[in-house]
Every structure is written in structure tokens, then in C-alpha cells.
Amino acid sequence: MAAEAEHAGSFPVDPLHQFMIQKIVPLQIGGFDASFTNSSLWMVVTACVVTAFTVLAMGRKAMVPGRFQAAAEMFYEFIYNMVRDNAGHEAIRFFPFVFTLFMFIFFTNVIGLFPYAFTATSHIIVTFALAITVFLGVTLTGIYLHGFKFFRLFVPSGVPIVLLPLVVAIEVISYFSRPISHSVRLFANMLAGHITLEVFAGFVLTFGAMGTVGYFGAILPMAMIVALTGLELLVAALQAYVFAILTCMYLHDAMHPGH
Amino acid sequence: MAQDMAVNEGVTTDTPTGAMPGAADAALEHVTTETGVPQEAHSGGFPPFNAQTFSSQVIWLVLVFGVLYLLMSRLALPRIARVIEERRGRISSDLEQAGAAKAQTDAAIAAYEKAFAEARAKAHAIAQETRDRLTAETDKQRHESEASLAGKIAAAEASIAATKASALANVRLVAIDVAGAIVTRLLGEDADKAATENAVDAALKRS
Questions:
Q1: CA–CA separation, B202 and B179 (whole Å)
Q2: ipTM of this model?
Q3: In chain A, N or C terminus with fewer CB closer than 10 Å?
Q4: Min CA distance, A218 vs chain B (Å)?
Q5: What does the alpha-carbon distance between residue B61 and residue B40 come to, in Å, rounded to a whole number?
Q6: How would you classify the pairing of strands A36-37 and A23-25?
């Protein structure tokens, strides 16, 4: 960290500064810090955008949808089919949760790409909180639906008795590492993408400071930023999709543990 | 940890308008003024791993996500579902109507074709019957005329034969007279009537 800080010191832009949590309204609730921060602000913005998009777009409830309505319906059917195909028909009651999850992550990621915006999903605690919610929800659903039989999930059928302890141990470890991989995937992708963008932006500033020659030199990193922004848009959508579809698969395991 | 907290607090309270009302502006100003120059930002270490900020992020995440979940599950999703359901119902009822209309059309076409075939068969039968009747009538008329013609021919032939016979009979009488006259002229005396008749009959038989 210190080395990074020193390195950043010689760089015109600190690539980590964008991840700083800034308190806007300091608050303390029961000894916990509950300040309204820039992260909270952009979460609220995301929630407002998602709500506006899904509610206002359906305002006219047209039989032949307009653009916004068609887009809202597209999101709906996309997630609906995802839940139905990956988690099964019985899991459709979790559709509102998966939909909220996908929309929240998707819009947080995309809105975070705007300059000066904060990406709440670039913080491990946010993605981990989402992942642990999914993990606990899925585990409790599985135990609620199947009782003790849920633990058959850890005992794959057709494995020789000799190998069984090893296989069960591996299954248990992989099961409990799910929330970690689930959250780190999203967090790391967002973090890395934003750092990369910022680093290239730093190059543009470095070249820009060099005068006329530098302006030409700045073209290359500038083009990189444009290309990377496109890539990050893809990553933003893809990671939201991956998060949602993994949730569906975990739900599927909870619904059908015996295989 | 406590030190970090203090520094973090310091960051926000150091801003010129650290008070609550203008806080948002202050934070924004903070962001814009700091983009160029890195400063005490690193005192908290790598920001995503700064545990000081965890509680507020989790609290706000739970709050925002919970509200968003309620808005989605109670308000937005049922509306979208209703519209999609209505459209699906409308499409399927339209398709059903179209299917019913098509069935009707097919039935009408079938009925038309059946009627057409019946009419054609009837027309065919009428034509056949008329043709047969006309043929029969013609045949009858032909037969009748043939019969009457045959009768007339037979009568004509009979009258011809009668005429011929009477003519022949006349020929015999004339021949007998002529022969008697010739014999009378040649011999100067009346010929024997019976002998003349025999001679004429014999001559007629030879001819």
C-alpha cells in the first residue's frame, strides 16, 4: 500500500481516489457509523433510476410498447427466463429478488461509469453483503424445503466409498467459498476496470502536461480510454448477468439438492 | 483504526462548509478539487478494504436494496407482468379468433364446393336425361317414318305389281286381238279364238 501510495504520488491522478468514501451527512446509529456517504448517494441514485425506468416506462401500459416500455419488458422477460431456465419453475417466487439484484448491480455498474459517479459495487463489502444475502437465503431455503436431505448436496451420487470423505470435504469447502467467489468476482472486475480507466486518464494528463508534442502522445491513451469505456460497459452488464445467473444456479441447488 | 477514523472525519470536517446543509456541495467540491492532486486520501489505505466505512455502506445497502426490492416486487413487476399477460392473452385470443374465422371460411368453401358439385351432377343428369329422351323420340319418329315409308313402298310396289299384272293382262288381250286381226287379214277368215289365245300365251311364256 505504501509503495502504491508513493507511486501514485508521482502520478498526476491517484487511481484509488475514486474509491474513497466521502461522508456527506455524518450519522451515528447505535454506535455504528451510518453516515450518508457518496456511496449511499449513488446507491439511492441507482434505486431511483431503476424505479423510474421500470415504473415510468410502463406508465402507458401500451399494448404495443414504446421504446422504454419495450426495454423494461425486455429486462423483465430476460430475468424471468433466466430464473425459470436456470433455477426451475418452483424458483419463480424468487424472481423479484433476482430481478432487483440484477437491476441494482447492472445500474450501479453502468451509472458508475459516468465521470464523477461512484461505483458502489467497487467495494468488497457491498458485493459481499449481496453475496452473503444470496448465500444465506439459498441455504435457508434449501434447509426449509428439504430439511436434512439438503445436505445430500454435499454427497454426490456414484462416488466410491473410499473417495467419499475427500469429495464431501471438497464439496463443503466449495459450497462455503461460494459467497467469496461470488462477491470478489464482481468487486474485482469493477475495481480493476475503474483503476485501468483512471491510469490511462493519468497518461493523458502526463502527456498533456508536456506541451504540443504531448498532445499527440495523448491521443493513444485517449483512444484506449474510449475503447476501455466500451469494454467496461460490457463488463458492467456481464458481471450483473453473472451475479444474477450464479444466484439462479445456487437457487437451483437449494431447490433440487439430490443429484 | 481510531486514528484512521479521526483522519476520515478530518477530511469531511475540513471542508469550508462542513456544516450539514451544504454538505453535498462540499463533497462535490471535494471530489472536483482533489482529482488533480493526491493528498491525505491514502491515510485510510486501500479504500475498499477500509473497515471504517463498512458499517455505513452495509446499512445503506440494506436500506436502499430493501426499498428497491419492495418497489420492484409490489409496484413495478406486477405492472409489467400484467401488461405482458394482457398482451399474451390478447394475442392468443386474436389467434383463436383468426383460427375460428379460418375454420368458418373453410366450412363455407367446403359447402360451396359441395353445392357446386351437386349442381353439376344435377345439370349433368338433366342433360343426360334430355339427351336420352330426345334420342328416344328421334328414334321413335325415325322408326315411325321408316315404317310408314316401308308401308308406302310396299303399297307402291303392290300397285306397281298390280299395274304390271293388269298391263300384262291387257297386253295378252291386245296381243290376242292383234293376232286374231292379223290372222283374219292374212287368212281372210276369222281365226280360231282358242287357238289364238293359246298361241299368244305360249309366245308370252317364251318372252
A1: 13
A2: 0.87
A3: C
A4: 17
A5: 27
A6: antiparallel
Short-list B197, B199, B47, B65, CA closest to A21 = B47
Task: Report which secondary-structure segment, H or E, holds A32.
Answer: strand A32-33
Instruction: Quote the cell numbers at residue A149.
Output: 436431505
Q: Are A12 and A205 in contact (CB under 8 A)?
A: yes
Instruction: State how many domains chain B has.
Output: 2
Given CB atoms, is A81 within the 8 Å cutoff of chain B?
no
Cα gap B37→A226, rounded to integer Å: 24
Listing DSSP states for B21-34 in one string gives: TTHHHHHHHHHHHH
Would residue B8 count as lying in a domain? yes
Nearest in space to B176 (alpha carbons), one of B205, B202, B203, B200: B200
* Segments in chain B forming alpha helices (H): 2-13, 23-34, 54-70, 77-187, 193-206
β-strand pairing of A23-25 with A32-33: unpaired
User: What tens digit of pLDDT does each residue of A211-239 get?
Assistant: 888 888 888 889 999 999 999 999 999 99
B151 in any annotated domain: no
Tell me how close the Cα of A123 comes to any Cα of chain B, in angstroms.
5
The reply to whether A126 touches chain B by the CB within 8 Å rule is yes
Using one digit for the tens of pLDDT, what is the confidence trace for A150-201?
A: 888 888 888 888 888 899 999 999 999 999 999 999 999 999 999 999 889 8
What is the pLDDT of chain B when averaged over all its residues? 79
- The chain A residue lying nearest B11, using CA atoms, is A22
| Residue that wins the pLDDT comparison between A17 and A187 | A187
Q: Domain limits at B16?
A: 1-46
Q: What integer pLDDT is reported at residue B27 of this predicted model?
A: 42
**Angstrom distance (rounded) from CA B59 to CA A74:** 31
Please, is A53 exposed, middle or buried when counting C-beta atoms within 10 Å of its C-beta (0-12, 13-18, 19+)? middle
Exposure of A222 by Cβ count < 10 A (0-12 exposed, 13-18 middle, 19+ buried)? Answer: middle
